[in-house]
Amino acid sequence: MDLKQLRYFLAVVEAGGFTAAAARLGVAQPALSIAIRKLERMLDLELLHRGTRRVTPTSEGEVLAGHARALLERAEAAELQMRELRGLLKGEVRIGLPSILGSYFFPPLLMAFKHRHPGLRLSVQEAGTRSLLNMIRAGALDLGVVTSDAELDDLETHPFLREEVVVHAGRSHPLASVERIDFATLFEHDLVVARSGYFLREFIDHHAATLGVEPRIAFETNLIPLAETIVRQGFGVTCVLRMVSEQTRDPELVAIPFVTPVYLDFSLAWQSGGYLSRADRAFLDFMREQTPWRRDGGVLG
């Protein structure tokens, strides 16, 4: 029994006769009648009442018709999905990432997506969250990672990450022995910070403004290895995401949490109502699958 036989049988049942079914299928009526007879012989069942005016299914035929509908629907769904996948043999995803997440969070996700869709091209651009927002709005990027506290009313978002912010200090730095730190103490020391427009720089600027102090910026760089070297040598401290400490495991660096733990939420953003290609939608679906978000905040799993 194959799908063609089931399609022929269901067409006869739904049309109520061989002539109408043959016309619907675009086949000769004798060929259709032969196909149904072969199906009945194979199953050793009479599937149709062949009346003079109308053909109706027997009780056994009714059962088979139900199975046939389900099987043909599943086959059609599979064919549709395969057509969609054929549409993903080529395409490009333009995504913007902040440097820290691009270095410490996204590599395994990007490689897993590329493995699933080897024909797609990933164009990844590094920039600060403010620049990424502007690029998304201007259509220069399809998707971009932003902090969830940004002005996002005109964008659609998928929250995917909540991460703690900690202070990195070198082993020789006076803060290395501190178990927890507050912002007032942090701003008494030289800082290594990112350029303006990056989320950790905005984090520093916001909390300094809240305390009414001017942060002591000793070095300004977006080069993560350079910032780590400066901190390791004791020339300043910096704020990083907890994942940086967990992944680098540098014995010369100490991660110091804040007295009241501080977290940042991140979202994947795109233009509200804007066009997303099949490749973009595939990446968005992949992110939703890999980073489901609880209603109370945070990644499931």
Output the radius of gyration: 31 Å
Return the string of H and E elements. HHHEEHEHHEHEEHEHEHEHEH
- Helix tally equals 12
- pLDDT < 50 stretches: none
Q: What proportion of the residues form beta strands (DSSP E)?
A: 15-25%
Number of strands: 10
Helix content: 40-55%
Mean pLDDT: 89
Q: Trace the largest sheet across and list its strands.
A: 4-3-5-10-6-9
Structural class label: alpha/beta
Distance between the termini: 43 Å
**Largest β sheet strand count, sense and barrel closure:** 6 strands, mixed
Overall body shape: rod-shaped
Pfam families: HTH_1, LysR_substrate
Domain HTH lysR-type: 1-58
InterPro entries: HTH-type_LysR_regulators, LysR_HTH_N, LysR_subst-bd, WH-like_DNA-bd_sf, WH_DNA-bd_sf
Protein name: LysR family transcriptional regulator
Helices and strands, with pairings:
Elements: H1 3-15, H2 18-25, H3 29-43, E1 48-50, E2 55-57, H4 59-87, E3 92-97, H5 99-104, H6 107-116, E4 121-126, H7 129-138, E5 143-147, E6 155-170, H8 183-186, E7 191-193, H9 199-211, E8 217-220, H10 224-232, E9 238-241, H11 242-248, E10 253-271, H12 278-290
Parallel strand pairs: 3-4, 3-5, 7-8
Antiparallel strand pairs: 1-2, 5-10, 6-9, 6-10
Helix pairs in contact: 1-2, 1-4
